[in-house]
């Protein structure tokens, strides 16, 4: 690996820029609210792109193109499910959650919101939801670190162990220093880089394989079923892929963007920007994997790395088809996807440990400066645990993401969604929803029942638990009063 390597130079410049943004955000971070939610100051563009970038992790440029490359368009059901789920999340949850968190103790985290919304004096709801965040997010963080390691390993010929640390170091640095503002500002840059890469790359692959007609003929010649969206699928298989969309309602790192918006009025504009960005990115991702089939069938001599690990299809196409300087920018987009999501996850874990454990149970009167530094320390702790979990080179990005995504989607999705639209929900209903959702995912995953993605039974059973347990009791007058005030605020300002 030469120091004059243009890709290496591009990476170094990019990483330096992200860390610089972290130090700029450091100057605006004065208290725990700034560190965890940026002082609720995000405008519509930053809210939109930050929500998108924090969602689309390394699987966008590695896991999903690899799945399309291996199986054809039948894997694109996941993209359709994600688009539908994200839109419904923006439509039903985003604005309402923004006002509900403000009316319920100006909550900074989801456990904080649940505790205030349902007047949970025991702290049980806060503890259980914070534990769910730590368990599933540490797995999610590990997936991001694996994706970063794969990128550094294949780009610079590093050993997996070295690549593991190289990929994680920069993200840890700017999250540690700048907190939420650093994460949101860098997300905006990273979202721009990702969409550039995912629009440009499929166009160049198409040109390299002889245009649309030639490319499609080559894909058909390789396997006519590549065009068949129902290939090797079953009703359960399609429902499982579409079911990914349910996960949006419960992802703490995405919901935090809604909570941090400067006002409800920003949400509608942010929704339009975010959905446009998302549709273009997912379309580009599917196209990269799909057109890659034609390219590597025409050039089998360079297909070795992709045959060995299909999640490297975007990386190899970027290296083969572009000038090294442009390739460096495109490969930085993978790093952007990894860093944007990993940084959000580290921050959410840090906020759960700091706000929901340290401040609530250990140091109720801790100063704001102390809490910010505890938050920074927790970023390091979670990152080290995730790196240890990612140490197995056989890890696959999409597999790790799917488990964590299901865990959050089932444990928190129904609780968040129902809590912002139904004032009859109770504390015991919320508790039942989180426990039933999380336990269902773990049990279903372990026994692989019916071949159905575990988020679907988890979401359904959690929703039923919330409804029936809530019906056994009744919300307090204070809960109903705050809900009505927040709903009125939302309807006046949306």
Automatic annotation (TrEMBL):
PROSITE patterns: NA_SOLUT_SYMP_1, NA_SOLUT_SYMP_3. InterPro entries: Na/Glc_symporter_sf, Na/Pro_symporter, Na/solute_symporter, Na/solute_symporter_CS, Sodium:Solute_Symporter. Its main location: membrane. It catalyses: L-proline(in) + Na(+)(in) = L-proline(out) + Na(+)(out). Pfam families: SSF (PF00474). The chain crosses the membrane at residues 6-26, 76-94, 124-152, 164-183, 195-219, 234-256, 277-298, 325-348, 369-391, 403-422, 429-444, 450-469. The keyword Transcription regulation does not apply. Keywords: Amino-acid transport, Cell inner membrane, Cell membrane, Ion transport, Membrane, Sodium, Sodium transport, Symport, Transmembrane, Transmembrane helix, Transport. It is found in: Cell inner membrane; Cell membrane. Signal peptide: none annotated. CDD domains: SLC5sbd_PutP. It is a multi-pass membrane protein. Belongs to the sodium:solute symporter (SSF) (TC 2.A.21) family. Catalyzes the sodium-dependent uptake of extracellular L-proline. This is Sodium/proline symporter. It comes from Pseudomonas reactans. The lineage of its organism: Bacteria, Pseudomonadati, Pseudomonadota, Gammaproteobacteria, Pseudomonadales.
């Amino acid at each position: 690996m030469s120091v004059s390597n243009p890709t290496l130079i591009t990476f170094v410049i990019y990483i330096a820029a992200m860390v610089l943004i972290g130090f700029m955000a450091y100057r605006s971070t004065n208290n725990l609210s700034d560190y965890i939610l940026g002082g609720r100051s995000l405008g519509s563009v930053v809210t939109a792109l930050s929500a998108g970038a924090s969602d689309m992790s390394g699987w966008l440029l590695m896991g999903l193109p690899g799945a399309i490359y291996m199986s054809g368009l039948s894997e694109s059901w996941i993209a359709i499910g994600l688009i539908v789920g994200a839109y419904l999340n923006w439509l039903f949850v985003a604005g309402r959650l923004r006002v509900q968190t403000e009316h319920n103790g100006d909550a900074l985290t989801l456990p904080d919101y649940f505790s205030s919304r349902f007047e949970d004096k025991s702290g049980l709801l806060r503890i259980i939801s914070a534990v769910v965040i730590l368990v599933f997010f540490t797995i999610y963080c590990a997936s991001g670190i694996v994706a970063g390691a794969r990128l550094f390993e294949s780009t610079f010929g590093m050993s997996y162990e070295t690549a593991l640390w190289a990929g994680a170091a920069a993200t840890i640095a700017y999250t540690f220093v700048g907190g939420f503002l650093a994460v949101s500002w860098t997300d905006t840059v990273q979202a721009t880089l990702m969409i550039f890469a995912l629009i440009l790359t499929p166009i160049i692959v198409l040109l390299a394989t002889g245009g649309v007609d030639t490319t499609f003929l080559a894909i058909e010649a390789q396997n006519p079923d590549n065009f068949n969206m129902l290939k090797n699928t079953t009703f359960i298989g399609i429902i499982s892929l579409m079911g990914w969309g349910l996960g949006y309602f419960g992802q703490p790192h995405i919901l935090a963007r809604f909570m941090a918006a400067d006002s409800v009025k920003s949400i509608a504009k942010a929704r339009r920007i975010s959905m446009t960005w998302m549709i273009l990115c997912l379309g580009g991702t599917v196209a990269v994997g799909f057109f890659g089939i034609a390219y590597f069938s025409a050039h089998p001599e360079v297909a070795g790395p992709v045959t060995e690990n299909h999640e490297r299809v975007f990386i190899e196409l970027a290296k083969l088809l572009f000038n090294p300087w442009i390739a460096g920018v495109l490969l930085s987009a993978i790093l952007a996807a990894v860093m944007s999501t990993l940084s959000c996850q580290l921050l959410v874990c840090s906020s759960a440990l700091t706000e929901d454990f340290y401040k609530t149970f250990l140091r109720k009167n801790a100063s704001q400066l102390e809490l910010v530094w505890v938050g920074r320390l927790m970023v390091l702790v979670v990152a080290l645990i995730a790196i240890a979990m990612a140490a197995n080179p056989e890890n696959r990005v999409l597999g790790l993401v799917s488990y964590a995504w299901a865990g959050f989607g089932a444990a928190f999705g129904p609780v968040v969604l129902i809590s912002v639209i139904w004032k009859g929900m109770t504390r015991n209903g919320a508790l039942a929803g989180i426990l039933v959702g999380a336990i269902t995912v773990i049990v279903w995953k372990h026994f692989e029942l019916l071949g159905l993605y575990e988020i679907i039974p988890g979401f359904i059973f959690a929703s039923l638990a919330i409804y029936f347990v809530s019906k056994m009791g009744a919300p307090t007058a204070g809960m109903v009063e705050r809900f009505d005030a927040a709903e009125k605020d939302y309807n006046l300002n949306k």
